[in-house]
Amino acid sequence: MSTPSITEEVESALAGNRPVVALESTILSHGLPPGRNREVAARIEDVVRAAGAVPATIAVLGGVPKVGLTAEELDRVCDPANDLVKLSRRDLGAAFALKRDGATTVAGTAALAHAAGIGVFATGGLGGVHRGARETWDVSADLDVLATTPVLVVCSGVKSILDVGATLELLETRSVPVLGYRADRFPAFYRRESAFGVPWRVESAAEAAAVVAAHRSGVPGSSGVLLANPVPAAFEMPADLHERLLAEGLELLRSRGVRGKEVTPVLLEHFHTASGGVSLDSNEELVVSNAALAAEVAVELAALEG
Ligand code: PSU
Ligand code: MN
Predict the structure, then answer these.
(1) Share of the chain above pLDDT 70, in %
(2) Which Gene3D superfamilies does the UniProt entry name for this protein (predicted)?
(3) CA dihedral sign of residues 102, 106, 107, 112
(4) Taking CB atoms and a 6 Å cutoff, what residues make up the pocket around ligand 1?
(5) What does pTM read for this prediction?
(6) How many CA atoms lie within 13 A of 164 on its CB side?
(7) How large is the average pLDDT for residues 218-222?
(8) Residue 32 burial by CB count (10 A; 0-12/13-18/19+): exposed, middle or buried?
(9) In this predicted model, what pLDDT tens digit does every residue of 255-283 receive, in sequence order?
(10) What are the C-alpha distances in Å from 290 to residues 45, 121, 174, 244, 253?
(11) Which of 159, 193, 198, 209 could form a disulfide with 301 if both were Cys (CB 3.0 to 4.6 A apart)?
(12) ipTM of the complex, rounded to two decimals
């Protein structure tokens, strides 16, 4: 693999077994509008630091995998003029060899984080099984990477634009533990609850860390763990607005014939413009909340696994 470029701050934290939290770049380049994405990037890193961990935002720049980004590199990722490619794990080799700039998805970020020795990762929403997957076979590589990469992913579940039930079934099949953070139901990104329960509930970062440590040290195999953290209640999208945007978004995909890796960005864009910013606030607050929780868990894990 192309040798990753790790910032000094991240490198020294890893060498000292101090807590590090990996952060995804696709939510910045493809999930949030220009300007707002840069503010969110800075805020996420701030909350991770405030909780006592070191943030490592991951991207590929000029073909080099970057673990930890400087302020200038974050600018580059967030500037739409640079037209970053969306990189899932399978795209990494091409981006390295062809010296491209790209933003990593959950799958791409988890792979690079693990390779760098980072075991905790925060994002907004996980990719999953799309509605209609029986015909399209559109199932995010995020699920496969979680099944094969021993990282903890903290997220707010999956969007209800996906088939939430099928996503949970696949996570069960692939032996990925799913924990609800102070929640009995799997969250649906903009909404705190989907119609589906979670198999396990934890009440604190310490409990989550204990489960992750036990899974890693005592359970054969190398699957990751999913910690599902519902959007903060004050920023949950109202149910009726959510229903309307969802129906419109799905119709938009159908009428425009959107396929493959464009599906998620097109839907996000529709939610953001058609909700007059309500979805953006939800999106920002849930990512910030996940980053803070991931940092708390990383701190507990460093104490346990030290
Ligand atoms: N879900 C969101 N926002 C996002 C994504 C998912 O609510 O920005 C991004 C993440 O980077 C995720 C990717 O890993 O989309 C999944 O894309 P696909 O379904 O093409 O695998
Ligand atoms: Mn897909």
Answers:
(1) 100
(2) Indigoidine synthase domain
(3) positive
(4) 24, 26-27, 30-31, 88, 105-107, 124-125, 127, 140-142, 159, 189, 261, 264, 268
(5) 0.96
(6) 20
(7) 93
(8) buried
(9) 999 988 898 889 888 999 999 999 999 99
(10) 12, 9, 23, 26, 28
(11) 209
(12) 0.97
Tokens representing residue 145 in the block: 């990477």
AA identity, residue 202: V
Mean pLDDT of 74-97: 97
Measured distance CA(297)–CA(225) in Å, rounded: 12
272 CA to centre of own chain: 18
Measure 237 CA to ligand 1 centroid, in angstroms: 19
- Going from the Cα of 140 to the center of ligand 2, the distance in angstroms, rounded, reads 5
> What is residue 22's DSSP assignment?
E
Pick from 227, 208, 224: which is nearest to 114 by CA?
224
What pLDDT, on the 0 to 100 scale, is given for residue 2?
A: 77
- Ligand number nearest CA of 249 is 1
| Cα 144 to ligand 2 centroid, rounded to whole Å | 12
Pocket test for ligand 1, best of 23, 24, 25, 26 (most atoms within 8 A of CB): 26
Q: What are phi and psi of 139, to 5 degrees?
A: -125, 125
Identify whether the C-beta of residue 209 lies closer than 8 Å to the C-beta of residue 301. yes
Reply yes or no on whether the pLDDT at 285 is more than 80: yes
If you average pLDDT over every residue of the chain, what do you get? 96
User: What string of H, E and C letters represents the secondary structure of 53-108?
Assistant: CEEEEEEEECCEEEECCCHHHHHHHHCHHHCCEEECHHHHHHHHHCCCCEEECHHH
